[in-house]
Amino acid sequence: MDIYLIRHTQPAIAKGICYGQSDLKLAETFPLEAEKAEKQLSKLKSDFMLFSSPLQRCSKLAETIFPISARIDNRLMELDFGDWEMKTWDDIPQTELNPWMEDFVHMPCPNGESYMDLYLRCIDFLEELKQQNTEQAFVITHAGPIRAMHAYVNDIELKDSFSLKVGYGEFIKIEL
User: Fold this and answer.
1) How far apart, in whole angstroms, are the C-alpha atoms of residue 76 and residue 97?
2) Each residue's pLDDT tens digit in the chain (176 positions)?
3) Burial of 84 (0-12, 13-18, 19+ CB in 10 A)
4) How are strands ordered across the β-sheet holding 171-175?
5) Within a 10 A sphere around the Cβ of 36, how many other Cβ atoms?
6) Long-range CB contacts (within 8 A, 24+) of 105-108
């Protein structure tokens, strides 16, 4: 099965803000970014499935560029940064941030989750997707889940998965 992992388009938020599961509005460039993403759908087969994170930065892209409704799946949400959501990275106390930076794979954010938590829910999604009878799936999600699923399929250690750069509106193909 061919799976196309698609990162949402650019959100309307200043740089330097920690956000994950906050439901952000889209940048004014959304129409152009969506058009660019839609042009990448030339390989769309008649038998495909569409999934999306429930956050509007993903679901709006799904509504805009696909001819069918997406199946919304909470497992596709970005990392839950808990108490850090919508704070500037500079405002997060170093006593909290430093231990997390040293072991973000296993250390959860305060009242949030670890990267391993995100990984496990994404793998659960992929394992369930394997059971579907379809040739092709499109999954509109966030950079964290894309890196986690890419790491799983390509047997990459989670601590090394951030080497995969994923731009807004970018498609990453994996195979199951």
Assistant:
1) 24
2) 999 999 999 999 999 999 999 999 999 999 999 999 999 887 677 789 999 999 999 999 999 999 889 999 999 999 999 999 999 999 999 999 999 999 999 999 999 999 999 999 999 999 999 999 888 999 999 999 999 999 999 999 999 999 999 999 999 999 98
3) buried
4) 71-72, 48-52, 136-141, 2-7, 171-175
5) 15
6) 105/158, 105/159, 108/82
Q: If DSSP states are collapsed to H, E and C, what string results for 115-156? A: HHHHHHHHHHHHHHHHCCCCCEEEEEECHHHHHHHHHHHHCC
CA 87, CA 82: separation in Å to the nearest integer?
10
Give the predicted TM-score (pTM) of the model.
0.95
Residue 170: DSSP 8-state? -
Amino acid at 172: I
